[in-house]
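Input sequence (333 aa), recorded before submission:
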Amino acid sequence: MKAYIIKKYSKNGHLELVDVPVPELKPEDILVEVHAAAVNLLDAKIMTGEFKLILPYKMPLILGHDVAGIVTQVGKNVTRFNVGDEIYARPADFRIGTFAEYIAINEHDAALKPSNLSMEAAASIPLVSLTAWQALVEVGVLQKGQKVFIQAGSGGVGTIAIQLAKYLGATVATTASENSFDALKDLGADVLIDYKKQDFENILQDYDLVLNSQDNKTLEKSLQIIKPGGKAISISGPPTPVFAKEAGAPWFVKMILSLISSGIRKKAKKKAIDYSFLFMKANGNQLSKITELIEQGHLKPVIDKIFPFEQTNQALLHIKTGRAKGKVIIKVR
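Predicted structure, token format:
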């Protein structure tokens, strides 16, 4: 099969198209013929080696964290899927590799594709929707009537998180450029802040939850708008010792993460704010719940651009610009 690989970490490298064997199945795996994949900033960060301490991948590595496709083979212990099923998934860490014609996925990491979405639209959903679900529902326990600040509303996570927060009954504030305001209002955003002209920390106050996807400086400003007892959940760092422990990282990684996150943890504690770092996990059961919300019309994908498989490198370059409004998709078949 054809697949895009990297052979080493590199800040300016590119993916190489090669022939590799079709993956072998473990007893609980399904073999998926890839129809579409999404490109995420996570792919670019792994490529540069930014996550090599907490995700020590072996090379060569096939990148890609989102997939929609058709089951062509099932392992001997598989009970959730049959050959011919249309599925979508965010494969687990160390099982990624959706920039390819086939991928083997543990059945517990996949869900049936929403019946009202195309393959390309479905591929845009898993990573960002699971990130939003785990941040707002699982960790944030967002309640009806609460206020949540979701940074970078027009990004992949932002567009889904806004919709999920509105479904949960929250008031939603977000940052974006002014030309995205109408689209974000349609998704449910209540308070829109033009990050080019306005400082959110001077506008918002007494928020219950912040979903941070920006740099540390923005995270520190976010602490100013959270009420005591509120939560700051960051998907862009800095990672914490708690995360390192949950990830089973070596002791020296725990020490490093303890040092780099000590500043923000102290500032949050001083304000009686709960700070946590979220690195989303594959979860087929949660994805099935998200499927229901999509089929009921509560969540809809937002797609920026679709590239053919041959232009996977161009798709990755496009995501690196940070200008994508929604998700960037690769059409494999």
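Checked by second reader. The domain at 2-125+301-331 is CATH 3.90.180.10 (Quinone Oxidoreductase; Chain A, domain 1).
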